Amino acid sequence: MQKIVIKSLFVINLAVIILFWWTGSSSLLLGASISGLLIALGRIAGLLAEFFILTELVLISRIPFIERAYGFDNLNKLHRWIGYGLLSGILSHPILLIFGYAIERHVSLWQQTLNFLTSWEDVAKALIALTIVITVGIISLPVIKRKFRYESWHVIHLLMYVAIGLVLGHQINTADVSTGIALYYWLALNFLVFGGVLFYRVLHPFILFNRHRFNVEKIVQETHDVHSVYITGRNMDKFTFEAGQYIHVSFLTKGMWQPHPFSISLAPNGKHIRISPKALGDFTSKIKDLTAGTKVIIEGPFGRFTERAAKYEKYLLIAGGIGITPIRALAESLSQKNRDAILLYGNKTENDIVFKDELQNLAPQGHYVLSEKTNGNFESGYIDEAKIKKFVPDLKERDIYICGPVGMMSAVTSILKNLGISKSQIHFEKFSY
Prior knowledge:
Layout: H1 2-30, H2 34-59, H3 64-105, H4 109-119, H5 123-139, H6 142-145, H7 150-157, H8 159-172, H9 180-212, E1 215-223, E2 226-232, E3 246-251, E4 260-263, E5 273-275, H10 282-285, E6 296-302, E7 314-320, H11 324-336, E8 340-347, H12 356-362, E9 366-370, E10 379-380, H13 385-391, E11 398-403, H14 406-418, E12 426-427
Parallel strand pairs: 7-8, 7-11, 8-9, 9-10, 11-12
Antiparallel strand pairs: 1-2, 2-5, 3-4, 3-6
Helix pairs in contact: 1-2, 2-3, 2-9, 3-4, 3-5, 5-8
């Protein structure tokens, strides 16, 4: 039902925008001149570009109604692909208008461009916005993005809010949404989206902090490069989440204020929550140095990597490396309910196994696979088809939860599909920016 409502709102708003454009520009579109056609197409390109930018904001707004319906992984994937498509739409807007008006006025393309910049209201601001959008789009390309630290990429990405603010005046002062009901609709749509983003991305975490006063209770070393952070506060039993979900965490200490996503590695207990990051970058390498009492800002919980997604009473939990964190929380929750759960957990060496002692109690049907140093107590190699068949003969009767490196999840998912497991039985989320 949630998805139907969300899709309906999207289609209705898209139809309304096209209607306003048709009302204002159909005479140009249906006229005999090539200039009118180009101008009309340029106008709709601009409106659709802004509409899909607003859609992008909604996708990353963390509005619970939307996040629960689709989950982080799907929203992030859609956000990425819309972003790539936006570049062509945004560029076509000024190009079509420059050609259209240049033909209509019998001037050169350069003269028309200068005319736009010097004589048309807010066009110069729109050019700055266009430059920002193109820059953000370029650095979001995978081949370039991987060269940026998450913190740097995140700060640059925030410039999109500046771009949207700059272009709003340009849109409401010209063409199809500049007067009457179209103007009020366009303003309402923009401010409603920005209001949702402001509340859920900025205000709501501080509302949660005011309610619970989250702070670091203690730091516990799990392995040579994994440390758990226990977070406590007031009325922790009122902070509700499900095993398998994640939160965005900011620590109010130097160099750690930017939010980062981490899975919760304990099932709900009403006393504290726990995240267990692996030292993989500047932020996570500082986790071990946090001190008790450090204030914590939390966004969430988020994610659909929970028992709610299951359709069977039996489970297969597959983890790789630090991907054990949400799996461990699920194992605890399933153990409390006496569910039939099998764990396959892959690592490089025995020293890399996180929560080893805890898992012995929570997942009695646990099988550990080591790709490097091993002994007779562990399986060697990788979690492959042979091991899955060996340890999980009733595979088709189970819901399967996978968490680990992207390559490992892709490989395991392919194996499961080749074994005839339906897509609805396979559950995973990718925590990549």
